[in-house]
Specification:
Layout: E1 2-3, H1 5-12, H2 15-18, H3 26-44, E2 51-56, E3 60-62, E4 67-75, E5 81-89, E6 95-96, E7 99-104, E8 109-116, E9 122-134, E10 140-146, E11 151-155, H4 164-175, E12 188-194, H5 206-211, E13 216-221, E14 227-233, E15 241-242, E16 245-246, H6 247-264, E17 268-274, E18 278-282, H7 290-298, H8 310-320, E19 326-330, H9 335-350, E20 354-360, H10 378-402, E21 405-410, H11 415-428
Parallel strand pairs: 3-11, 14-17, 14-19, 19-20, 20-21
Antiparallel strand pairs: 1-10, 2-4, 4-8, 5-7, 5-9, 6-8, 9-10, 9-11, 12-13, 15-16, 17-18
Helix pairs in contact: 4-6, 4-11, 6-7, 6-11, 8-9, 9-10
Length: 432
Amino acid sequence: MLITGRLLAVAAVGIVPALLPLPAWAGPAWVLLVLLVAIGDAIAAPSPRRLVVSRTVPGSVRLSGTVTCGLVLRSTVARRSRLLVRDAWVPSAGATGNRHRLVLPGGEARRLTTTLRPVRRGDLEAAGVAVRSYGPLGLAARQSDLDAPARLRVLPEFTSRRHLPSRLARLREMDGRSAVQVRGEGTEFDSLRQYVVGDDVRSIDWRATARRSEVVVRTWRPERDRRVLIVLDTGRTSAVRAGSGTRLDAGIEGALLLAALASHAGDRVELVAFDRALRARVAGVAGARLLPVVADALSDVEPSLLETDWPGVVALTREQLSQRALVVLVTALDPAAVMAGLLPVAGQLTSRHTVVLASVSPEAEAPPGGEAVPTPGADVYDRAAQERVRLDRDAVGRVLARDGVVVVQGDAEQLAPRLADTYLDLKAAGRL
């Protein structure tokens, strides 16, 4: 039984007679009377367990998006119920407006709504429904927690989507749908056209010219139907803070943008998330279905406090790819981790594939408010240490570049567009 503020107010009325010359038993009698009335009021309240509760929840929502969830309460008693309902979710669901007061007639149903604004990726579980049923006098209530299982999948935010239109425009230009034609070693033949002054004489098709009365040249387009494998490192270095999230969050943004762009370019995109075990895999999906499947696969991927098994990454790549492809390693360029793990096996990847390493740069770990005003003392040493780390990472990047790895660095906001630009540059150069 729960008491209400109304019961306390009624009990306080007994203070006034207590100031009068009344018998000693008057005070306890009043308290007992109020208590008995409260018990009777609680007994008269319809039991919350006589309610049938069900939830209607959308399948998914993007991080920081807003979604409305429905809660249906159906009464199985004949009496009217005065209820206070709390639609409970885990704190990361960001539930607002989840407390509802209502009067539910006997045998009828009501639908309540709760707004959710999630603050993290993954599957969010509903925590139950707390229902408080008040008695006719409003002095006491009965309360129960009812089960109404529900799960909401929160997908990555994909804020880098805003960079997609400009990259698609460049891709259309490369594909020859505008006036530009791309020519170069390793690209696919597109068409023949008449020679104009300024064309490279090496592009002249002499056999076709012999069959015509004019000089014709070959035009080329970037290679299509190539394979792109995105390897997302979920080891311990991916848990480092970067901007408003982690390195892994920034890597997911880059992976989503690259997957969307490569899919529009006609390439076959595959993705794996790996540390010492396979955390997610997407393969055999193309077209409009690719991006939703990738987002769904990455929604519940979290950093693990383990060193990444880079020989295992090489073995997984060999298993996944049987021909030359673009392998994108979304990982950290930390000197210790790279020298001990990635560097010894980098040659095994570059000997068979074009390899790109995408890493969040040290600038991503600066305070969100921007650079602090320099102050004497410890701040000087902090800045010197950050500069030392930056120089070490640049040195490791140069070592990887000598092994044939294309290194891309950027902060949490810059990494995704820079990775997309690198992909387009490689495609234009015929290196995929």
